[in-house]
Amino acid sequence: MAQIPFYKYHGAGNDFIMIDDREGRWGDQVSEAWVALACHRRFSVGADGMIFLQKGQEGADFFMKYYNSDGRTSTFCGNGGRCIVAFAAFLGIHQSRCRFLGTDGWHEGAVLDNGLVEISMKDVDMLQEATGGDLVLHTGSPHYISFREAIGHLDVFKEGRAIRTSPPFAAEGINVNFVEQVHPGKIRIRTYERGVEDETLACGTGVVAAAIASAYRTNHPISSWEVHAMGGDLMVSFNRLGPEEFRDVWLTGPAVQVFRGEIPY
Description:
265 residues, alpha+beta, Diaminopimelate Epimerase, Chain A, domain 1, 17-stranded mixed beta sheet, 4 helices, 17 strands
C-alpha cells in the first residue's frame, strides 16, 4: 500500500492537508471517496480541505489544486491559498514572495517579516441584493452575506444550511456568512461553508466578502478591515474605485504548520 507524505496546516483554524505533488503522482488521480476519508475527523487526519501543490505553467511558482472535505474539487480557498504560500516557502520554492495559479486565476503571495502570510485576491465588480438587505458576491468562491447582531448566539449550522440549500443556491451551493458590525473597520464573522457542509472556524474568501460587503453597505471610506473569525483575526485591504468596484484586494493572517505524516493510499 502506497503512503502519501502530507503536512497539516491551518489558517485561523481553517485546516488543510497539504501534499507536495510537483511530480504529478497524486492530485489528478485521487478519488472523491479517498479525499473525503482523509478529511474525516473521526477516521483519518481530518481537515476542512485537501490541497495539492503542483507544477504551474510558465510564470507560476506552482498551481494550487483544492478539494473540499466532501472530496470534490472546488473554487478558490483564501486561507488555503495563504497556507500553500507558507508551504511553498517551507519547501524552498520561494524565499518570501511568489506568484501562483488557483482555479480562479493568478495570485501573488508573501510570507511577511512578522510571520503572517498575505495573498492577493480576486477583484470584485458586482454585489447583488438579496432578501432583507443581504448581499451576494464572488471573491474566488460564491458568498452570501447576512448582517446580524449578536452572532455568537446564532445556530449557524441550521440557518446557514437553510440558505445554502434554498432554491436559488441548492444546485451549486453557496457559502453563508453571518456578519456583525463592531465599529467602522472592524467586524465579526461566522461561516457555514459549502463542501464542508458545516460551520468552519474561518473562511478566507468569506472574510474578504464580508469586508467588501460591509464597506459597500456602510459606505465607509475605510480601505483596511479587521475581521474577527471564530479561529482568529484576519485583515482585508482593498482600493475602492466605485460603488461596486474593488481592486487590489489582499487577505492577511496566520498560516501555521502543525504536524506531518503519511496517509495510506
